[in-house]
């Protein structure tokens, strides 16, 4: 589910998550991701296969075409304590499979 949390000198935290719900990241899960990302005052980026989008953009997230089994890297740039909390909430959201079957 989750792979790692790291930080570097630029104040970036990241966490690898795997999409587990059947339909992948469609409009509803994208909106849920944006809701969690918007609790963070810094920048949030989501990366899949070397493509990076703004984690606060529903359309950007949907354009990743992240189906079941896709590995996404969530990056938080800004305040580290707040970023850790946001990444933990994001991991919980993925673990709950966006409340889908």
Structure, explained:
The chain is α+β, with helices and mostly antiparallel strands and 101 residues long. It has a single domain (2-99), classed as Histidine-containing Protein, Chain: A (2-Layer Sandwich), CATH 3.30.1340.10. Helix content is 33%, strand content 30%. It has 3 helices and 5 strands; from the N terminus they run ββαββαβα. The protein has helices spanning 27-37, 58-63, 80-95, and strands at 2-7, 12-18, 43-48, 51-54, 71-77. Strands 1-2-5-3-4 form a 5-stranded antiparallel β-sheet, with helices on one face. A hairpin with a 2-residue loop joins strand 3 (43-48) and strand 4. The mean pLDDT is 92.
- Which structural category do the helix and sheet elements fall into? alpha+beta
| CATH topology group | Histidine-containing Protein, Chain: A
Give the topology string: H per helix, E per strand.
EEHEEHEH
The total tally of domains equals 1
Order of strands in the sheet with the most strands? 1-2-5-3-4
Radius of gyration: 12 Å
Query: What number is the mean pLDDT?
Result: 92
Shape: globular
What's the N-to-C terminus distance?
17 Å
């Amino acid at each position: 589910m989750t792979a790692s949390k790291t930080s570097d000198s630029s104040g970036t935290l990241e966490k690898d998550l795997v999409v587990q719900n059947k339909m992948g990241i469609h409009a509803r899960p994208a909106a849920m991701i944006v809701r969690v990302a918007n609790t963070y005052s810094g920048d949030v980026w989501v990366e899949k296969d070397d493509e990076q989008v703004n984690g606060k953009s529903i359309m950007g997230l949907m354009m990743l075409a992240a189906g079941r089994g896709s590995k996404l890297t969530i990056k938080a740039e800004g305040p580290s304590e707040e970023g850790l909390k946001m990444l933990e909430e994001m991991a919980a959201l993925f673990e709950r499979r966006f409340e889908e079957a």
